[in-house]
Amino acid sequence: MMIGLRKSRLWEIALLGGALLFALFYLAPFLTIVLTSFKPAAEVIASPPRLLPSHFSIENYLHMASALNIGRSMWNSLVVTFGSTAIAMALGSMAGYAVARSHSPVVRSFFLLALLARVVPPVTLAIPILGMIRWAGLIDTQIGLILVHAALNLPFVIWMSSGFFQDIPADLEEAAIVDGCNRFTAFTRIILPVATPGLAATAIFAAMLSWNEYLFALLLTNVEAKTAPVAVSELLNVYSSEWGAMTAAGTLFTIPVLILAIIIQRRIVEGMAMGAVKG
Amino acid sequence: MTYPILMHHLHNGSVQSGQPRRDSHVRSRMRSMLQDRNFVAIAMSCPALVYLALFLLFPLILVIYNSFYHYDLIDPGSRQFDGLDNYVRAIGSHRFWMAVGNSLLFTAVVVCVEFVLGFAVALFIDRLKRGREIVRTILLLPLMIAPIIAAVAWRYIYSSEFGILNWALYQIGLIDSPSALPWLSSPAFALPAAMIVDIWLTTPFIVLILLAGLQALPKSLSDAAKIDGTSLVREIFLIKLPLLRPVIAVALVMRLIDAARTFDAIWILTGGGPRFSSEVLSTQIYRTLARYADVGFSSAIAVLFTVGLMILALCVYLILRPSDAGGRA
Amino acid sequence: MGRRAYVKGALAVLVGLMAFAISQYPDRSAEAGEAKVTVLVEGGSPAFKALQKVKPDFEKKYKVKLEIATAPYMGVRDKLISEVVSPTGAYDVAAIDVLWFPLVRNVLEPLDDLATPEVRADLFPHLLSGATFDGRLYGMPLWDNAEILVYRKDLFDDAAEQAAFRRRYGYALRPPTNWQELKDVAAFFTRDLDGDGKTDMFGTSLEGFGGHGDAVTNWLYLAAQAGAKSYVTDGRGEIVIDSQPYLKASHFLIDLIDAKLVPPTYMEMASPQNVELFKAGKLATTYVWAHFLPDLYRSAAAGRAGGIGVAPNVGGAVPGAWYNVVFRASKSKSAARALVSYLFEHDDAVADAFGVAARRSVLEARATMPEGAHLPALIRTLEDRGTFDRPALRRWSEIEESVLIPTLQTILLREKTPEEALPQARDEIALILNRQRARP
Known about the structure:
CATH superfamily of chain A: MetI-like
CATH architecture of chain A: Orthogonal Bundle
Number of helices of chain B: 15
CATH superfamily of the largest domain in chain B: MetI-like
Structural class of chain B: mainly alpha
Largest sheet of chain A: none
Order of helices and strands of chain B: HHHEEHHHHHHHHHHHH
Radius of gyration of chain B: 27 Å
Helix content of chain A: over 70%
Oligomer: heterotrimer
Number of strands of chain B: 2
Radius of gyration of chain A: 24 Å
């Protein structure tokens, strides 16, 4: 028995070691970028390349600051993300609830429509949406991009939230109604708080989608409302591919998200779990 | 559906109040509306419905409409009804079929690898007794990286001159010289290079989903299997996999659609080149639109693309859908 | 209760943030009184740097705020198209590639008044013709550029090398002035320096990289040197891509490849890569855009005996000019025109940023300075009769991308002979152009 236990212990440690190694190896591309961002500018394009910087340097970050207005673009990204997530969650969770609880064929077909919307490639809608936003005078504004991002997120939010709401037993509302609520107040006072974990996960995913979005940010913004992904992509031009500044910008753009992810990782995994197991 | 308790409550309220009939009549009408399940459902889904109609349905109709016209963005006056001309042009275009082929190839390879790799890793993590959370957290991180940031990063890594990938392979001895693998400048390598980036970005997602699914499986199953003496392999393939079917079905459809729609990463990584070797439908649509300003043609390709995707999604889902009712009422 | 407060708190934070976000919406009306000029330039480009340089003085002199908007090359082009489709006056001025004139000229303000006789005399003819449509000038040149020869002066000046060359070829070693001399020099200098059986230095290089316009311009000017009078189409709209000069140019490139006188990775090369190879000593000669010279002067390669050798191109070359344009929908036209003429006056700021300029006077003045050592060669090349603009075709971008680059690459990769590939290219170009012409 003793030998068996030790063997299984060793096996455990080996597995864990292997898993950690794999995970770190998996992160290697990103770590390369982070490390490179702290290299002296000349080392960034050194051939042959070195993994570690010879000495710590923030040259690349200074370069980046002068090459693009990173503060403004990060702020724009933040504003657009919050705005579009708020709209998508507000409208989407209501609709998701309706879909979860209703037997009406109208609502059912609406759900199908939302699912279909999930299938449409965004690039397909580029020109009409560009035209609409231009017609409304909202080109290069945060509002314009917020509206479009909310639309892109809406099908996903509806789909995810309806899944979560279905998990909640209908008796809860019935009890609330007996207690005097109408359907809507039952939703806001009773159901929403219960569904918060799932909705939080949904909100996180929606926010990520907006934060990382590139195509419409590229099309709809110029100077004022340019978001960070677009700003970073501009570093690759024909005069000098500003690799140093680019690694700095990439690191800067991703690190906050990663830190946030580590803090709330449980939520995220829960959300995915619910989404997955629901089927 | 009847709501006996509610209706009774309402009825009593309005009859016994003795207040002006009209006022309470309206209020009770409203109250009963708010309590009517269907009305509330429709009311709650209305805002979203309108929003989607405005931002998705309407543009989609416009795209279909545009596809029947020859429409030069720069010269709107030249707009001309063409009927199916754009579609005929697409179907007869060699580059269109190349893009279709690339899209299919990209999607198939990427999704297969992600699922196989993802499943393997998920199984692996599932067996871990400790440290599961740490590994899971680390694996979560690539998911958070914006595709275009990843593309820009990988362009740096793939570089023949100062890219760490070729240099590392050279050091290990797998290739003759650091410039032996021209990842982004060779037609043969460009699409695989893009595939690798997408796989890197998305496998963690699959891992996490499948892991959640595995962890939701009752422990009694593995115990029973152990008692029966079933081998590990059989346990995985004959017991766990079928039970994971609903999870896999949904995730598979989602991933197929998303992989087919990929734009950001490929555009930044290769721009569809060299010589259109990594051109997929989404990059072709963008190029036709933004560079050649040919709205009609790009709309036609877009319509074909969307229809194809819908058919694909439907087929896969119908094939994989669990035969029992599952979660949906 | 805890949960409810949590939800309320979260909602409150969200609402607060939204309110704050909306408050950030730029209040356009407040800025109406303040004069502002918005310029669209390619990020990181010399135009961008020149603008940054002149910004303080310009703002002070004219009492206008200068806003510099950037986008990547194709992004600028996309935004120009946006402005054409619905002119919003989002930009007052833009720095554009000469190739984009056909796309945007309908929304541009004519600038003839800025082009006084003195100004015209100070510009190369093709600079003016490139921006002139229906007799009116629509852009003021920012800079002009062409590919010139860069060579290893230390090798060319070496007595032993000169003697060996004369023995082998019968004439004095010098920067090539025609194709035969180029081939001779290339053959002479392609060597295995360390005896390991691998060629370490190549006599010359070429550009085959498809993600870049360089390969095409390289090929096109070779055709001009072989006698072509126009690029791709002639004055009457006839397609000439399969004519003799283009065949000759194609065969010239193939000969270099077959004789192994160029690095084997030529399919990945554009000017930037050739510059790097030259710095590393792997090329004896190469052709690069003149604006790379300042970078070469700063590199270690400049430390070689004699420095960096520069010479004019063998004949004419494709001029790569950029212009400043003013949009008709601009709301600050006078300020815009002021900026354009200010930049023209301060062409030296562009020269500082880039190494080349538009005005002859600026080029000639700097030619005597060490940082302008490449300018005599550039001037000579720009003056050449074989230097003329690419045709002002609206669909040039599409033609270059879908026909010219793939055709050139097919030829360079030996997948097809020029005799097979060029007529096909002709048909494809005809298709693209006819689509444009068949419509009313």
